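request received
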Amino acid sequence: MVPGLPDRTLELYSSRMTRQQVLDLYFMDARSKLIDLAAFMDRVERAQGKEDFRMVAFRAALALLSQDAPEKARQVLLAFSDPTPEPISTATTKAACGAWPGST
Amino acid sequence: MKYIEPHAHMVSRITDDYMKITMAGCQAVCEPAFWAGFDRSSAQGFYDYFCQLTEHEPKRAGKFGLPHFCWLCINPKEAEDVKLAEEVIALIPRFLNGPNVLGIGEIGLNKNSRNELKVLELHVDVAARHDQLILVHTPHLEDKLKGTRLIVDMLKNDKRIRPERVIIDHVEEHTIKLVLDSGMWAGMTLYPESKCTPARAIDMVEVYGNERVWMNSACDWGISDPLAVPRTALAMKKRGHTVEAIEKLVLQNPSTFLSQCPKFKLG
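response:
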């Protein structure tokens, strides 16, 4: 507790924006990001060579967005995730690449 | 707006950043030990780093009237070399009584390897034997879900560890519930490209509640924003959250968790 500040609970978050307010605040940003995604896919498809496992995972995640289901952000994150339970034998790199290679 | 920055790698930031976060209302900054962007070649390198975190950096912050606290460990990115990790972990107890040391962190996993898990267990053992708070880093991107599961399972299986004294950092939409259900705290890291944006962090608070969560910038040597916490506070205000609700998230909550270490005091 911070001295002088009362404890607060979830009720403080009970006020939610209406759907109209959410659209007013975030639509232009989301529209811009969607066009960026489209342009990224155009760029990949114009380029020579084969796609790798990352683009396969990307397309699978993209398909989730058009489904009529909740928790889309969570579902997209799960689509990119390593679902296996066991530790790997050795770390051969420090970096993550954004998609699980084993999914392909 | 007064706030606490509970996770920032200030050794990698310029002095102007101290001025900016202080002007934005920062009341205290907490710095977990982390990877320097390259592998240190010996335990001596870590000794020097721990001296930097416990002696030099608090003085640098103090020039702005800002209390500086730290956490000690060898970061999971350097945990594949178990022998080096054992040497570094052996150094930690001599620093634990330092006036700005809050606990062991940021420990955890990076690629979810067996050696990383072994080094995590060694760190947790030090924390348990010395009754220290624990700050946990979870892996990036495709490795986060699996790593978070492994970490939570390991900590739950160690009966010496009280979950309310552990914060699992860098949660996202697919890991936050797992962490909160375990009784541990969840840290949301506001970081460009990876981890989460201010809008997503606020979404998670609205969906999962405001108890046992905090937000941090984790600003470091990469592209990152030392003002991410006050920036998110502003975004909360735009979404209609009250000043009291924002204060709980950016000031009260981190203070509640960190005050479990009696050395944590606001200026």
